[in-house]
Amino acid sequence: QNLTLLDWMHVYDFVDAHPTVTQAQIVWHLGSLRTGALLFDQSALSCKL
User: Fold this and answer.
1) 35: helix, coil or strand?
2) Which position among 8, 21, 26, 34 has the lowest Cβ density within 10 Å, counted as fewest Cβ atoms?
């Protein structure tokens, strides 16, 4: 699934708010949300950061 620009903005907001969380933990957390789960992998996150 391709994330929209708005989806990536949510990811960046989460990363900024949780600077000590690893990329793998970020991917797991955002992918496990009950509503609005964002499905992407760590390599996609790494490329975007």
Assistant:
1) coil
2) 34
